[in-house]
C-alpha cells in the first residue's frame, strides 16, 4: 500500500485518492527535564531509519535550570510506514559549525511504539496528554558521536573516495591504513571482550565493577542525559496551491 502511494504521488495522482495522500510524522517537543549539562546550549535532531536525507533540526535551547520549555516546536519527518524506528538526538551547540557539534543524548523509538502513540493522538487530537510520552535520552559514547560527522564529510567528499585515497596513501608508504569498517569491527570486538572479562570477574568475586551483585551480567546502565516530553502525530503533508504562486507580490526590496 505504501509503495502504491509513493507511485501515485510521483505521478501527481494523489488528488484522486486523498485518503492515501503523503503523510508526515509530526514530533511536538513539549519540554525537557533532568538536564545533566545545564551549562551547554543544545538543539534536537530527529530522523527515521531507514530514510534518505538529513535530520530535522530544532531551535537552539539555552537551559538556565534543569527544566526547559521547548515551546511545542514541531519537527516533521516523511513517513512511509515501513520505517524501523525514529532517532532523536540532543546535540550540544558549539556556536561554530554544525559539522563539529556532537550529540550528548540519544533515544531510539521503535515503530510499534510510535504507531500506538499516533493512534492515541488521532483519537484525542485536542488533548496533549494523548500521544505524548516522556523519553529518557541516554549519553552517547564519544566514538559513536563522532560518527555523526561522516554525513558532513560525504557532502564534500564521498566516503568511498575518502577510503580509496587513504588506501592509496597507505600502499605508497607501506603502511596499512584501516578502513572505517575495520575500525568499527575492532571496536565491537573490544567491547565484547570487555563484557566477557566483566562476566569472569563476577564469577570470581560475585560483584561487578560498578557494584552490581549477581551473575546476570554487568550493570551497563547508560547514563541519562535528560528527559524529553514528545508528542507523536501522523498528519497529512501540507500542499501549496502552485496555481496561485503568480499572484503573490514580489518583495519590495527586490522590485525593479
Largest pleated sheet: 4 strands, antiparallel
**Poorly predicted regions:** 208-218
Alpha-beta classification: alpha+beta
- The shape is globular
Task: Encode the helix/strand succession as letters.
Answer: HEEEEEEHEHHHHE
Give, in spatial order, the strands making up the sheet with the most strands: 4-1-8-7
Query: Rg, please?
Result: 23 Å
How big a fraction of the residues is strand?
A: 25-35%
Helical run tally? 6
Helical content stands at 25-40%
Average residue pLDDT: 78
Question: Using DSSP, what is the number of strands?
Answer: 8
Question: What is the rounded distance between the termini?
Answer: 49 Å
Structural commentary:
The chain is an alpha+beta fold and 256 residues long. Helix content is 30%, strand content 27%. It is built from six helices and eight strands; from the N terminus they run αββββββαβααααβ. A four-stranded antiparallel β-sheet has the order 4-1-8-7. Strands 3-2-5-6 form a four-stranded antiparallel β-sheet. It is globular and about 70 Å long. Residues 208-218 have low confidence and may be disordered.
